[in-house]
Amino acid sequence: MSTARAALRVSTGLRVHRRRVMSTQSRASAYVPQGPIEGASVVITGANRGIGLEMAKQLIAKGNHVDAACRSASDELRALEASSEGRLTISTLDVSDPASIDAWASGLKARGVTRVDVCVNNAGVIGSNGYAWDLESTTQEEMIYVFKVNTCGPLLVTKALLREGLLGEGSLVGNVTSKVGSIDDNGSGGGYSYRASKTALNQVNKSLSIDLRDRGVHFALLHPGYVRTGMTDGKGLIDAPESAAGLIALLEGAHGDCETNWFDYKGDAIKW
């Protein structure tokens, strides 16, 4: 480990946590927030396709156990589960529904999960029916729906995992936001529902990082880039594997402290 990296971990008060034995997997290594994510217990929401699915693939390849949470599993996710040698478990979760979130979190504990090292709140929507980007197509109902998924979802998932005692000292929560939520960066207008939901998520992330500091839970904002996925109707500048690799590197501290800085998938800083 470099001297600078060691100093960073000491200054942020990060501690090494020995693995507890879980019924779902063997965990014998140590995990440090913003260190290598290997042999860890990971939760990814919205893991049935796109960035979430690709993050699941790459984290399984690094020797982690992944709980892939989604409303309905895609054929590709089921194939990944079948080939994962027990390192991936699919669970049902609708992040727009508080009852679904509570049932999902209690289900994790009932299944024998005792700790979540890394939670990636990836599930998100652009709109209720594709893009509602301009002023004319923006309605109150549209905004509320997008906020339920993009802003309330990550908050309530985190809250439910805390209630079940699954997040604790050293756990890391990565909230997938978007650069379009940056007020400084908004030079083109539009995107009322999506932009506002991601700006609000940034505030949620900040408050959680303050309120749960004493419990040792860490938080990071993640901008995946403009990714070609089903959510973007195949439009974008990069593909999911590149984005997922960049986000994992961010969580592993490749570009510095991702708790007090907001980076994109390349490690470039984003203004608020």
Automatic annotation (TrEMBL):
Cross-referenced InterPro entries: NAD(P)-bd_dom_sf, SDR_enzymes, SDR_fam
SUPFAM superfamilies on file: NAD(P)-binding Rossmann-fold domains
GO MF entries: oxidoreductase activity, acting on the CH-OH group of donors, NAD or NADP as acceptor
Pfam family, one: adh_short
Name of the protein described by the UniProt record: Short-chain dehydrogenase/reductase SDR
Source organism of this protein record: Ostreococcus tauri (Marine green alga)
